[in-house]
Write a structure and sequence with these properties.
alpha/beta, 2-enoyl-CoA Hydratase, Chain A, domain 1, eight-stranded mixed β-sheet, 19% strand, Methylcrotonoyl-CoA carboxylase, MCCB/AccD1-like, AcCoA_carboxyl_beta, methylcrotonoyl-CoA carboxylase activity
Length: 542
């Protein structure tokens, strides 16, 4: 091991420590004071409910833990967007769990809450996963209702998805474990089955205050929509339970009786750990995002037995393609090579850049994986497509379009890990969020932006200087330096993986050591949804 390796290791391990510290803070939700209020009502906290519900030997693969991170500060913040979502195992069955966190603004829905719920439903629909909703919410956060209520991807889309999932035969079980108000009342009742906790659960279209102001009737919330009302009088709910634990036990019992899912038939053998030490990834990955490294060294520490069947090894070397296994599952890997390579034509190719030959190779490989029914894993560390007259005359746009086409039309499940840079059209070609990866996670080393910070800041500075000159103002060298630093700092703050995760451009930020688990759980979920669509790229550039 050398000094460079040790330095990288220190920086990357510190980044993972920072990640875990951030998560610990987020896991506290609305804080100890609000948690105590829930406990006083005899309720479990949202994370306690999930922990009680899932199989003891399993872990939740959380979706959107960082959603809304450092957003809505003027409203007091909204950790995890006030809802916890993730893939977990209940009675041995993989399912999507969605639990409102009543310690965060009484579980009220912010714009990011809706976006996160829709992402959870999207994952459930793509993979035909049963959904368990643990409902405890005061409904829409009224001060922001215009950003959450009326549009296509807003609150109402969730109930539309409830209906469509039911029609598709995707099981949905809802537990009303606290408030369930107004439009939000439709979520549990549009599920296949709804249960309610006596004394703490309530569901109604309008609470007592609104009923009083609307029709003048004096009535309490328990009479309006408590467990007795809905289990014994209205018939709105199906099961009544004395406490959270009994309610969750009932869900586990129901889940144990579900019929087996159809399978897609993705190949899996007995899992094996990589022969090369996965911990060494911390030392291989440079602390500086501009520095070169060999992506093959990362791949060999992610795949079973460190075995990787490389496709067109000596051609289009700036993108690595090949077959391997992750936790026993067969996968096709498309990864950006970050070291400088030399083509047989004598062209020096920069690491992280997609050239015409590498785009051609990746396109063909993606098509091959669709032909063979092998899930795709994209490892992103891409600065974009090659620019300049030589590349333009060589048809880089045409070749890039081919790769984007193949990624967009791919019918096998796709999984994306943002290892490092994810810039510009490179993000698209390497299956960024817009290209429907089943799951997309980032390492703490990720940078997601339209272009690198240094280049973007210089462009923005030129625009600002031109604007000032048009007003007759001059800018000194000292002012220029200050302005450049201010622009660079602002731009860099918007390219962190946490900024992306807060807005759900990625499903989360993970320790590189968890990458195999994330991909394996993702393929296991995808294997419950047979591929029915025929692979077809339509008109492809030649």
């Amino acid at each position: 091991m050398n000094i460079e390796f040790n330095k990288n290791e220190d920086v990357n391990k510190q980044s993972v420590y920072d990640l875990k510290t951030r998560l610990k803070k987020i896991y506290k939700g609305g804080g100890d004071k609000n948690a105590a209020k829930q406990k006083d009502k005899g309720k479990l906290l949202a994370r306690e409910r999930i922990s009680y519900l899932i199989d003891k030997e399993s872990q939740l693969l959380e979706i959107g833990a960082f959603a809304a991170d450092e957003m809505y500060t003027e409203h007091g913040g909204c950790p995890s967007a006030g809802v916890i979502c993730g893939i977990g195992y209940v009675s041995g069955r993989q399912c999507m769990i969605v639990a409102n966190d009543a310690t965060v603004k009484a579980g009220a829905w912010f714009p990011m809450t809706a976006k996160k719920n829709l992402r959870a439903q999207e994952i459930a629909m793509e993979n035909r996963l049963p959904v368990i909703y643990l409902v405890d919410s005061a409904g829409v956060y009224l001060p922001m209702q215009d950003e959450i209520f009326p549009d296509k991807e807003h609150f109402g889309r969730i109930f539309r998805n409830n209906a469509m999932m039911s029609a598709e035969g995707i099981v949905q079980i809802a537990a009303i474990m606290g408030s369930c108000v107004a439009g939000g009342a439709y979520l549990p009742i549009m599920s296949d089955e709804a249960m309610i906790v006596d004394g703490t659960g309530s569901v109604f279209l309008a609470g007592s205050y609104l009923v009083k102001s609307a029709i003048g009737e004096d009535v309490n919330n328990e009479t309006l929509g408590g467990a007795t009302t809905h289990c014994e009088i209205s018939g709105v709910t199906d099961y009544k339970h004395p406490n959270d634990q009994a309610c969750l036990d009932s869900i586990r019992n129901i889940m144990s009786m579900l019929g087996a899912p159809q399978v897609a038939g993705f190949d899996r053998v007995k899992p094996a750990l990589p022969k090369l030490n996965a911990e060494e990834i911390y030392g291989i990955l440079p602390e500086n995002r501009e520095k070169p490294y060999d992506m093959l060294e990362i791949i060999h520490r992610l795949v079973d037995n460190s075995e990787f069947e490389e496709y067109k090894q000596l051609y289009g070397q700036s993108v690595i393609c090949g077959l391997g296994r992750i936790d026993g599952w067969a996968v096709g890997i498309v990864a950006n090579q970050r070291k400088v390579v030399k083509s047989k034509k004598g062209e020096m190719q920069f690491g992280g850049v997609i050239y015409s030959d590498s785009a051609d190779k990746a396109t063909r490989f993606i098509m091959n994986c669709n032909q063979k029914k092998i899930p795709l894993v994209f490892l992103q560390d891409v600065t974009g497509f090659m620019v300049g007259s030589r590349s333009e005359q060589g048809g880089i746009i045409k070749d890039g379009a081919k790769m984007v086409n193949a990624v967009a039309n791919s019918v096998v499940p796709k999984f994306t890990i943002v290892v490092g840079n994810s810039y510009g059209a490179g993000n698209y070609a390497m299956c960024g969020k817009a290209y429907d990866p089943r799951l997309i996670y980032a390492w703490p080393s990720a940078k997601i932006a339209v272009m690198g910070g240094a280049q973007a800041a210089k462009v923005l500075l030129q625009i600002q200087e031109a604007s000032l000159k048009a007003k007759g103002e001059t800018i000194t060298e000292e002012n220029e330096g200050e302005l450049l630093k201010e622009i660079t700092d602002r731009y860099d703050s918007q390219t962190t993986p946490y900024y992306a995760a807060a807005r759900l451009w990625v499903d989360g930020v993970i320790d590189p050591a968890d990458t195999r688990k994330v991909i394996s759980m993702g393929i296991e979920a995808a294997n419950q949804s047979p591929v029915k669509k025929q692979f077809n790229v339509g008109v492809i550039q030649t």
